[in-house]
Amino acid sequence: MKITREADYALRIIAMLADENRQIEAKAIAEKNDIPYRFTLKILRKIVQAGIIKSYRGVNGGYVLNKKPSEITLKDVIETIDGKIAINKCMENPESCKNNGICKVQRKLYKVQKVLADEMSKITFQDVLEGK
């Protein structure tokens, strides 16, 4: 599995907001993380819609976490941006795989995918802040 650049940026944005623990403007988020401004806005929209962060409009507007860092996992953020974690096409949509249910490789890959998703759901941004 390879996460997208967009998901990687989203992880960095959440880590920054967790670390700063204050409201930050989109422009400052983009500059500090070296992310193109328009791309930053696109990512911020997605994570606001998911309820992970809140946005405030106006002169004093900006973005802040909507949950405690201990309540946000790597899996939450990655799946918000990239969709369900899947290590290959068959895992993404098993019904579309003609070998679904009979493929021995698929069964093993499913186990790997489950371990990966489970581990990502255990790692919170509090862990990230504490360097765990």
UniProtKB/TrEMBL annotation:
Cross-referenced InterPro entries, in alphabetical order? Tscrpt_reg_Rrf2 (IPR000944), WH-like_DNA-bd_sf (IPR036388), WH_DNA-bd_sf (IPR036390)
Cellular component (GO) terms are: cytosol
Which SUPFAM superfamilies has this protein been placed in?
Answer: Winged helix' DNA-binding domain
Q: Name one GO molecular function term.
A: DNA-binding transcription factor activity
Instruction: Give a Pfam family name.
Output: Rrf2
Q: Write down the superkingdom of origin.
A: Bacteria
Name the record gives this protein: Rrf2 family transcriptional regulator
**What are the top taxonomic ranks of the organism?**
Bacteria, Bacillati, Bacillota, Clostridia, Eubacteriales
